Amino acid sequence: MSEALFRDKVEVPLDRMTDADPDLDRLLAEMGRGDADAAARVWELVYEELRGLAGARLAALPPGQTLQSTALVNEAWLKLRGGAASWEGRAHFFGAAARAMRNILVDRARSRQRELRGDARRRVPLTGLDVAELGAEDGLLELDRALAQLEQLDARSAKVVQLRYFAGLTIAEAAEVLGLSHATVEREWSFAKAWLRKALDEGAAS
């Protein structure tokens, strides 16, 4: 598997999309009010961007995933269209997109694990935050459980992880989406990695 669990780069820079249409925030607000034309325009603007991010995320997962980036984006879009009554701009949208991708991947991992139930679960000692040696389902579900705990402790750090891991954004891109400084996101990212490493190591030892 390529690199560590959390990648530092994505294939498509976020600023390509954000610079493409300065009216994206307005269109998102109109989409939230039920404007079908605005929704169609938002889809046109974000589709390639989200597909690039989804592809980067899927490429970073352990072997065993069969979901394609196009299918992940389409499924995430359906969740986004039906999940929010209003959008508070691109930060809200991309945060929701990251959560939607996380939920989709975790749900698929749970379904796959149920199919394999009855097999002995393979335990492999974790090295840092690299879960590539775990089964795809085990590693993703363990990360999801640890991330849920982190959300209770530090919601902002958990949002950084969602944007970095599940949406594949860089530090700079996550800072732009969250409206935070680069230094703040870098600090939150460092804290989250250390916390998750400890949580995953403790889970592997139990």
Overview of this protein structure:
70% of the residues lie in helices and 0% in strands. It is mainly alpha-helical. Helix 2 (24-32) crosses helix 3, helix 6 crosses helix 9 (182-205) and helix 8 (171-178) packs across helix 9.
Short description:
By secondary structure, the chain is an all-alpha fold. 70% of the residues lie in helices and 0% in strands. The protein has one domain (14-205).
- Give the total of beta strands: 0
Instruction: Give the fraction of residues assigned to helices.
Output: 55-70%
- Total DSSP helices: 9
Task: Provide mean pLDDT, rounded.
Answer: 75
List low-pLDDT spans: 1-18, 120-136
Distance between the termini: 25 Å
Instruction: Please identify the structural class as seen in this structure.
Output: mainly alpha
How many structural domains can be distinguished in the coordinates? 1
Q: What's the structural blueprint in terms of helices and strands?
A:
Elements: H1 14-20, H2 24-32, H3 36-60, H4 69-83, H5 90-115, H6 136-153, H7 155-166, H8 171-178, H9 182-205
Helix pairs in contact: 2-3, 3-4, 4-5, 5-6, 5-7, 6-7, 6-9, 7-9, 8-9
Feature tags:
70% helix; mainly alpha; 9 helices; globular; single chain; 0% strand; 206 residues
